[in-house]
Amino acid sequence: MGILQLLKSQFLCHLIICYVFLVSGLIINLLQVCTLPLWLVSKQLARRINIRLGYCVSSQMVAALEWWSGTECTLYTDPKSYPLYGNENAIVVLNHSFEIDFLCGWTFCERFGVLGSSKVLAKKELSYVPVIGWMWYFLEIVFCKRKWEEDRRTVAQSLQNLQDYPENFWFLLYCEGTRLTPKKHQISMQVAESKGLPKLKYHLLPRTKGFWVTVQNLRGNAAAVYDSTLNFRNNETPTLLGILNGKKYHADLYVRRIPLDLIPEDEAECAAWLHKLYQEKDSFQEHYTQTGRFPGPIVSPPRRPWALINWLFWACLLLYPLGLLFAQLISSGSVLTILASVALCTAGWFHAFTPKAKSPCTGCNSPSFSLTIVFVLNVP
After folding, report:
1. 90, β-bridge pairs
2. pLDDT mean over 329-354
3. TM spans, by residue (predicted)?
4. Which helix (H) or strand (E) holds 251?
5. Confidence band, pLDDT 50/70/90 cuts, at residue 4
6. Residue 276: exposed, middle, or buried by beta-carbon count in 10 A (0-12, 13-18, 19+)?
7. What pLDDT sits at residue 3?
8. Fewest CB within a 10 Å sphere: which of 141, 259, 273, 337?
């Protein structure tokens, strides 16, 4: 293990990363609250400001993946579609097989300049969570209660509100609703058999209602669906804790651009179309398993420096007063005070990285720290 890798695995480095993320996030939440009066004067200006404030939070997670762990992201896509990425509104359909697939989706958004304006469909409870949830509220994220009769109206209205959004956005969807596990896959395939649907090997059955409502309400606004299938080389199973420890992974992402006009408007036909899409995604995963790559050419967008620059800015801003406090603590000479501070930090670290019995996201029981689990999104 090299010196740099040893440094990345140290508790103090993890503590610093979490401290910068949490404190900067709360500061950004406060700044977002200050934009409330501006919504009454200029809605579009308030939106643009919140896009950049939101980027200051979410890009820190991307910086951890790209710059701290050094994870590589390879994109397989049609070169003719490549120039359109980031220059149009789109619905991004992601598979939900890994703990960090949301983060790879955000990296995809970052490399095409739409991270700050990207949207998701998230549970209503997350809007009350500090940092991420509050940030999402000001970014007009679409929240649902998982009660479909109520959600049909609220989700549709939230999507309609995006018709005049001032910047290009991507709407990220996990149509499987929850992350793939062997038990969930078995249950899902039993449902497929009972409904006479073809079985899937690498995916759960997609939930079609949320997808149909999304497509219907973004017609005329979004130009295409980006069918995205993610996998990791060498059969790796990446985790957020691995990213924090500086472990390097290699993600391969296959993206197909499908014009929205090709998706049926009728709900039943749209559902059948989505089931067919997931059968095709299954074949792509089978191809990857057999050959170690997705079909098609590789077009790798370069890393942008802005996520790293943003993190360094907040780190410099917030670590300076922390350093002064630490110096005063040491100079006080009080052994009891020092031991109490170390015990408090250690307790916080164990609480953050201990596996939870049940996360607030349905079907997501992962050993990720308590705040990052809110990134795992479920579609009704």
Report:
1. 170, 224
2. 60
3. 12-40, 308-327, 333-350
4. strand 250-259
5. confident
6. exposed
7. 83
8. 259
Average pLDDT for 20-32? 96
Rg of the chain, C-alpha, whole Å:
21
All structural domains of the chain: 3-291 (3.40.1130), 306-378 (no CATH)
**Encoded tokens for 82:** 């490549």
d(CA 264, CA 126): 32
Residue 125 vs residues 106, 143, 231, 244, 347: alpha-carbon distances, Å: 21, 8, 30, 26, 26
- Where does residue 235 fall: left (phi above 0), alpha (psi -120 to 50 degrees), or beta otherwise? left
Residue 210 near residue 121, CB atoms below 8 Å: yes
Average pLDDT over residues 271-282: 96
Confidence of residue 7 (pLDDT cuts 50, 70, 90): confident
What number of H helices and E strands is found in the chain? 13, 7
Distance of CA 331 to the CA centre of its chain: 43
